Amino acid sequence: MGRTTLEALVDAQRPSLVLWAPVFFALGIGVYFAVPSEPQAWMLAALAGLLALLTATAVRLGTLGRIALLILILPGAGFGAAALRSLAVAGPVLAFERTAAVEGRIVGVSRSSTDRVRVLLDRVVIHGLEPDNTPRRVRVSLDDGTDGEVLRPGARVIVTARISPPGGPTEPGGFDFRRIAWFESLGAVGYARTPMLEAASEDAGSLRLMAFRAQVALSAHIRAIVPGQSGAFTAAIFTGDRSAIDSAVQAELRASTLYHVVSIGGLHMSLLAGALFALVRYGLALIPRLALIWPLKKIAAAGALVVTFAYLAISGFDVAAQRAFIMTSVFLVAILLDRPALTLRSVALSAFVVLGAAPESLMNAGFQMSFAGTIALIAAFEGLRSMAWWQTTQTDARWRFLKPVVAAFMTSLVAGVATAPFSVFHFNLLSQYGLLANMLAMPAIGLVVMPAAVVALFAAPFGLDWIPLTVAGWGVTYFLEVSRWVAGLGGAVSGVPAGPGASLVLLALGGVISVLWIGRGRWAGLVAVALAVLLWAGHARPVLLIADNGRLFGVETQDGRALSVGKGAGFAAQSWLKKDGDVATQEIAAARGSFVRTRNRIETDVPGIGRVVYVGRSDAAEADAECAAAAILIAPNWSAAPAGPCIFLDAARLARDGAISVQAGQGGLVLNGALSANRSRPWTRGPAPQPPREQGDASIALK
């Protein structure tokens, strides 16, 4: 390709060139998280020097040269930003599972997947552990006997808990909670064995703690006005406090694809900012003199900016809320600067700010879905403006009553199509009636609930906020009824097997090319999407999966994955089934297959692998005979390996490799451990030395 051809190509793409900058920056971040080992300090120093040299060189070059160097500089900058962020959040991680007295300050309250209240503690003291080895933050699920009065923001509490390091993947290549925990400075998680007690009075604390205290107070105030689960849901979307929402309601919201409304994000920020902007601007415009003298549009934007920051603070500065605030503030600042607000350039700037502040956001489903939906909506509505039928619906008086319905339908359709691939990839669920649920339910949030929140803001000083909050409760009740009805429809949810990471990359790349490329080259985006689908469809799930406790293992059968036990290691079991695209429960999956279960022993024959045997007893008298009859022998309680041809998995092997997948290869069986890869990353760890087993804890390994 000659220079003239390149110049013509660049000239054709000039309007969208700046939009590619965050894409290449994100590419570098993605490479950082994909590499198997952490870059050393000298590598980062060399990278910084190289980037500085390239930047200085780019200033002296022409357009083509600058673009070529930026293609190198931006990924390098993204890689470096991610590495520095990882260093900045570094903190101690608990070395091994233990029972201990844990003391700390309450800085967060939430609810676990098993419907137990859990607290987030900072300024942690773990009795028996040196301060330098004590995690900065610990999360503990509470005993039912804990007095609710203890759960006050800033209160210093103490509890006896079984705590462990953040868990690794439940299978090789699976979701790694350790990475999420690392960037949240969460060094241990666990469950209380005794009721939590108050150890000291509340700490005045920082701005963040003051905001948490305000969140709890406001949430309680809302629930006092709006009863039941409607109040719990209203409190969640107004304050970010989801601790009062029942697990059954959460399951219905997930089945109807409406769960995204629970987490404060771009939807909430944009609706709140939009409602406040409209109320202030058009409210002041009712006074003719003000409308002529004051810049009402800028005043409304400034007011919306202040309120959305307060909303961010009350929500507890959640990562998703931070991302949403940055996006919303970019749009509002654009209004203050007399610039177009809803443009792809604003989205690109938002992406740069978010990724620069928290590069790890790129790996989160919330980031991917948020930006995919926003980009698709802006691009789609820009395209619709040139279509005659759309212009008719927006300008013809005969459509004045249906205009909002058409706009809502197109918004739900475009956002649903754009975010569905990412949602399915991360959560392995496809809602058959998601569009119907959003069409029926979302107008209540946008037209009733969020405007009522703005009115409540102005009514609160006069003690009249109960009126708009009651109205908001009506809208939420309708919303939840729609969710319950859709979730109850036959076949509302179907499972989708997990796909390879390459499919996610190609889906994102295909979407970006389709939107940003100018000309016929954008069709290459569809080629990338088609390739992603083909790779996904051809991705095979492991024939055999073994959990890190050894007792739970799952075999792929024609009826779905058969599990060795119906109880225990429930998180791993449900994770395997979900990634298989199987919506069955663990109990149902345990009824499949041909397992032979006796006391302290489980065995089955796996086609292509052979006999798999689990032995729970510590007596190894018949070890050699067991090994001779099995292809894979799992015996976590044996102190020595048996003689024989079997693959032997003991406690040390399971601790070192974690969950294991087994496939039949040409040279024999291929075993991969979930903890075997990327051992040198900050959030991963090798096998920690285990302390002597505590009295009374013999059953812990089987939980």
Largest sheet: 5 strands, mixed, barrel
Q: Roughly how much helix do the residues carry, as a percent range?
A: 40-55%
Count every helix, treating DSSP H or I runs of 4 or more residues as helices: 24
Order of strands, widest sheet? 1-2-3-5-4
- Count of DSSP strands: 18
Descriptive overview:
- This protein has 703 residues and is an alpha+beta fold.
- Helix content is 50%, strand content 14%.
- It contains 24 helices and 18 strands.
- The strands form 4 sheets. It has a 5-stranded mixed barrel.
- A hairpin with a 2-residue loop joins strand 10 and strand 11 (560-563).
- Helix 14 (365-384) runs antiparallel to helix 16 and helix 16 crosses helix 17.
- The chain is globular, with a radius of gyration of 28 Å.
- It starts with a helix and ends in a 30-residue tail after the last strand.
- The relative contact order is 0.08.
- Mean pLDDT is 87; it is low at 691-703.
Record keyword descriptors for this entry.
18 strands; 5-stranded mixed beta barrel; disordered C terminus; 5-stranded antiparallel β-sheet; 703 residues; 50% helix; single chain; alpha+beta; 24 helices
Please give a quick description of this structure.
By secondary structure, the chain is of the alpha+beta class. It has 24 helices and 18 strands. Helix 12 crosses helix 13, helix 16 packs across helix 17 and helix 17 runs antiparallel to helix 18.
